[in-house]
Amino acid sequence: MPLALTEPLPWQAQIWQRFQAVLGAGRVPHAFLLRGTRGAGKHQFARRMAEALLCEARSGEDRPCGHCRGCHLIAADTHPDLISVMPEEGKIAIGIEQVRDLIAQLGLTARYGGFKVVVLSPAERITVPAANTLLKTLEEPPGDAVFLLVSHYSSLLLPTIRSRCQFIEFPTPDEVDAIAWLSARVPQGADPLALLRIAGGAPLGACEMVENGSYASREIVAEGLAGLANGRVDPVAVAERWRTIGVPIVVENLMSFCQDMVRFRSAEGPPYLANPDLAGALQPVSQALDFTRLYWLYDRCESARRSLHSAVRLNERHLLEEITAGLVARPDSWG
Ligand SMILES: [Zn+2]
């Protein structure tokens, strides 16, 4: 029986063909940068690339054979020539020691005589000293090494790192493809279209929202927001409640709510909402917060999101208290 290898995502068919052509022609670059929409399936694509590179019986077909030693090892997550570099447990950055270890590992020849594949993710979490240490290896890697850098925010990468990579772009998938895929995966009763829109069009992001509780927490975040906007609740208490949900989830929810509130302020009965099920809660808030405050909230969340994805540690309590204090109704200062 063939092994269960990584499932192809329908909206990636074209980029996959392009990669297959490069692989088939034997012109595999030393380094790829997989970048674009979070939740569009970059990691899954990187994994498929690794499977294709490490299959020992490449037949020129679309997928790895699923039978050879390489395929068995990668399916069991024990392939010695597949090296994964990510922040160590409890840390948020990829540090210089990790990069030194990687370079030492790459100095040895591939165990099974084929490629050595390095998946480095999220690439924007690499510290500047670590990135500088990696540069030379990235430019002239040992002949059998292929780097797959995965980044949601590639603008945060050093230009010297970016310039050494061939880009593979992951735009937001076509909605029809995404819904077809998502429909088979959402829990019963959930509306795949609503979920996809809440996730900003990213299908894997939509699945993640269900799994990590973000989808279920939206009501709590909206409720806190409504309470702050009409001055009924204590901002510190809201900050504390939001902190138990998790800052990344709250930040994503608030950004999505902000976009809908701007839509409410811009048009009566806006034709599109990312959170149509929460319209009743968000519309009054949009009237209580003026554009200045909405844009402030959005900017604050956007910058927090960037920090969450960078190598800088964020003071979560401080951030949430700043946001909730900034939203609380102050009749004297609000026009
Ligand atoms: Zn194989």
Report the portion of residues in β strands.
5-15%
**Protein structure class:** alpha/beta
What would the average pLDDT be, to the nearest integer? 90
Low-confidence stretches: none
Which shape, going by the Cα principal axes?
globular
- DSSP strand count: 5
| Helical content class | 40-55%
Note the gap between the termini.
69 Å
Strand order of the main beta sheet, please? 2-3-4-1-5
Q: Determine Rg (CA atoms, Å).
A: 23 Å
Which compounds are bound in this model?
zinc ion
Report the biggest beta sheet as strand number plus sense, adding barrel if it closes.
Answer: 5 strands, parallel
- H/E element sequence: HEHHEHEHEHEHHHHHHHHH
Number of helices: 15
What is the quaternary state of this protein?
single chain
Fold and architecture overview:
This protein is an alpha/beta fold and 335 residues long. Helices cover 51% and strands 8% of the residues. A five-stranded parallel β-sheet has the order 2-3-4-1-5, sandwiched between helices. Strand 2, helix 4 and strand 3 form a beta-alpha-beta unit. Helix 10 crosses helix 12 and helix 11 packs across helix 15. The chain binds zinc ion. Zinc ion (ZN) binds next to helix 3.
Short description:
The protein has 15 helices and five strands. It is of the alpha/beta class. Strands 2-3-4-1-5 form a five-stranded parallel sheet, sandwiched between helices.
What distinguishing features does this structure have?
335 residues; 15 helices; globular; binds zinc ion
